[in-house]
Each structure stands twice: as structure tokens, then as C-alpha cells.
Here is the input.
Amino acid sequence: MAWLLIDNSNTRTKFALGDERSLSNWRQVTDTAGMDSEILTTITCDLSFSAVAVASVVPEKASLLREYFSKNYPCHFIGHLSPLGYGFDLDHPEQIGNDRLANVVALLEQHRAPGIAVDFGTAVTFSVLSAAGNFSGGAIAPGMDAMTRYLADRTAQLPAIAHTEPKSAIGKTTEEALLSGAVHGHRGMIAEIIRRLRDEIAGDPKVIATGGGATFAVAGMTAIDAVDPDLTLEGVRRVAARVFA
Here is the structure.
């Protein structure tokens, strides 16, 4: 019997089915802000599953998911005390985002140690897996949307922009200049953070990108070894296998 796997992030919540072997092809995505019990019913009414595993970074929505599913199914909400398969080289693992915990589960088991999981969401998180196979910390930076939205909200003449590939680094209009600064500046920030992290990690870490904005954000970046859009859900699946199998 399959498990329902949920990645509840700040912007979007992703649903998948999986079992001891793999994720299935079924996926569903909804906006986190508008997610309620009616939407959960619509998403899951035709599904067959035996348990629910969740990685949530939104406490209000975690409460909704717990209340909705726990009446009828065994539920596991990933945290630092979950069976993750690794230890921690830091003092307060309870402060780590649960999506980051799941990312490192998949990073360790699919790509091995050492490594860096870079998750592109509302924020960009960098989670470091040490050569010894422990979560050893990382970095958190603003996402591209957050950067451009801040400029549009805080200035009188700078508009909101859609993220597309700049035609040139030299923008000829305000929109083109904003786009160049956002895209090239964001990629430069990502590359520099990865470079600094690599300097402090023993061995040759694999850098795996995930998250909704990953494919666009890392286009042409040699610092990224691969993009894995299912990294978080795969981590949730592997924790579920330890809890429910």
C-alpha cells in the first residue's frame, strides 16, 4: 500500500505517492496560503494510501494537515528526532527546517557524502552533508522572487518583473536592467555561497539543486552538479519507509 507524501513549503505544497521502493508518477501541487480541508479532500478523495508523511515549514498548515489526516491514518511529521539516517554537527538541530532535513536524507542516500543540497524556494537554503555523513549546517539566502518583489514594493519607479533569461547584461530599459540584476546577481550569489561552503567541506561535495525555481535559477551554472526536483519528496519517502514499513 502506498503512502501519501507531503512537502509543505511557504509558497507551494506538493503531494506525491510512494512506497518502500520509489515515488509514483502521481503528483499534485496547491498554493500553500489557500490550502484548506476542502482542497485536501479534492486532492486525496480518489487516492488509496495507508499512511501520511509530511515535511512542513508552515506551522499553521502543519496543524491543518495533522488535524485532517490523523483521524484516519498513521501520520509522521518529520523533525530532527525522526529516523533520518544521519547525525548532526551542530548544537540546535531542532531549529533546522524540516524540508532541509528531508533534503539531506535524500542527498545522503542517493548521492552520498559529502554534499550540498540547494533548495530554491521563497528562500534559498544550502544544507551541508559532511564527509562523515552528518548534517553540519549551511546557509540561507533570499530567493529571486523575494529580491525582486522587495524592490518593487520599496521603490516608487521600479516595477515587478517576470523572471526570464536576460538578453544582455546591459539592460536598455528599467525592466531589462532589473532582470539582469536579478538573474545574474542571484546566480552570482548562489555560486559564491557554494564556493565558500566547498572551501570548508572535506572531500569533493556533490551539489544538488531542488525546488520550484531550481532549473531556471541554475541554468549555465557549473557549480551545480544536478537538478533533482523530487529531492524533498524522496527524502520524505525514505523517512516514511523507516516509520511505516
The chain is about 35% helix and 25% strand. Helices lie at 37-44, 59-69, 98-111, 144-154, 174-199, 214-217, 231-244. The CA atoms of residues 165 and 183 lie 7 Å apart.
